[in-house]
Amino acid sequence: MTRIYLDHAATSPMAEEVIEVYTAEMKEVFGNPSSIHQTGRKARKKVDDARTILAKSIGAHETEITITSGGTEADNYAVFGTAYARKNEGKHIITTQIEHHAVLHACEQLEKDGFEVTYLPVDKNGLISINDLKNSLREDTILVSVMYANNEVGVIQPIVEIGELLKDHPAYFHTDAVQAYGSLSIDVITSHIDLLSVSSHKINGPKGIGFLYQRKGILLKPIFYGGQQERKKRAGTENVPAIVAFAKAVQLKQATFTNGNVEYNQLKQVFLSELERLKVPFQVNGSQESVLPHVLNISIPNTDVETFLVQLDLAGIDASSGSACTAGSIDPSHVLVAMYGESTPELRNSVRFSFGLNNTEEQVLEAANKISKIVL
Fold first, then answer.
1. In angstroms, rounded to a whole number, what is the distance separating the alpha carbons of residues 24 and 324?
2. Is 325 a catalytic residue?
3. CA–CA separation, 2 vs 251, rounded Å?
4. CA dist., res. 139 & res. 144, Å (int)
5. CA angle, corner 332, sides to 330 and 338, nearest 5?
6. Per residue in 350-370, pLDDT tens?
7. Positive or negative CA dihedral for 151, 154, 155, 158?
8. What is the pLDDT of residue 76?
9. Span 4-12+257-375: which CATH code?
10. Which one is catalytic: 325, 345, 358, 373?
């Protein structure tokens, strides 16, 4: 049985061209970029060239890019780095109830350290209210962290409007763009973004590598201590092969940006149309207008997500609840709780399908047919 992978929002397969670059760099470039000899300088040039590609992809300067081990570290660096660098200016932080746990858990830790955090609610479409944000801003607010697009339901937040609101406020504006990067056109300058997190493995690059954009003049307290790598911002020897492969994945995404988004959205629509044709009952969770092209979260009445995911797995379909697995059970999604409340059926019957590299129309049609046999 050939498996059908519909969980690209969790992680994406590496593109063949990226694998080729990755393995070639592991063989050919083994020097430490901090070494001053020729072998080290060769590695340094590879990192510098890759950093330029990463920076240009969001309209930034290469000196504003700090390489990290992925989205979690980038989020942690933005949140903790801001908090501890600016704690004498204020201890109030604003975020949302639907952030990735890399932000939420960081904020929860800061609350234990004496910071005050406001968690903005969302409506049933998964969107925050600009008025709620405006009313929550205070003189002692030092950070506003709102994800660009949600990883569970794919809803895109009004980032440009948020940036416009905050451009004259001293609070730093951070956005977790891990799920949005590669699917949306991002310009940190016109959006007035101060800090932005990205991860490679969501765009067909290697795992364990990402970056934090840090606008010039934005001060953060480092969370790693050691050497003086990354302009003294992030200690640790750079993973040169992964960085170069990451840059290659970015180039491939940029080259196929428009066509890829159209293709993945078409696969989504074909999938939905086939479910409707087969009379599978469902509702789409989250906004259907302000949403990523490749992410689809649906609620199927009279199903249990744990059982349903096992049945999908046995049928050869990889999907996700979008929720954290703990001790063999699936906790209710904090995103869906924020959208619908704590006692709604969507918490127990919602599944995320996400489309990407190597998916075909034949695959999504087959997946829909298998789902109908499980549900009906």
1. 36
2. yes
3. 30
4. 13
5. 155
6. 999 999 999 999 999 999 999
7. positive
8. 98
9. 3.90.1150.10
10. 325
Q: Tokens in use for 243?
A: 């960085």
Report how far residue 203's alpha carbon sits from residue 53's, in angstroms, rounded to the nearest whole number: 14
| pLDDT tens digits for range 255-312 | 998 898 999 999 999 999 999 999 999 999 999 999 999 999 999 999 999 999 999 9
Residue intervals of the chain classified under CATH 3.90.1150.10 are 4-12+257-375
Quick: pLDDT tens for 10-51. Answer: 999 999 999 999 999 999 999 999 999 999 999 999 999 999
List the end-to-end C-alpha distance of the chain, in Å, as a whole number: 22
Long-range Cβ pairs for the range 33-37 (8 Å, 24+): 33/229, 33/237, 33/238, 33/240, 34/227, 34/228, 34/229, 34/237
pLDDT tens readout for residues 299-345: 999 999 999 999 999 999 999 987 554 445 578 899 999 999 998 99
Fold of 16-255: Aspartate Aminotransferase; domain 2 (3.40.640)
DSSP 202: G
CB count, 10 Å around CB of 257? 14
CATH code 3.40.640.10 region(s) in the chain: 16-255
User: Cα Rg for the chain, rounded, in angstroms?
Assistant: 21
Taking alpha carbons only, the member of 318, 362, 242, 346 closest to residue 9 is 318
**Per-residue pLDDT, 1:** 75
CA distances to 11, 64, 99, 360 from 248, in Å: 17, 19, 28, 23
Q: How far is 260 from 254, CA to CA, in rounded Å?
A: 10
58 has pLDDT over 80 = yes
User: Where does 57-185 have alpha helices with state H?
Assistant: 71-86, 101-112, 130-136, 159-166
**Identity of the amino acid at 46:** K
Burial 295-325 (b: 16+ CB within 10 A, else e): bbbbbbeebebeebbebbeebebbbbbbbee
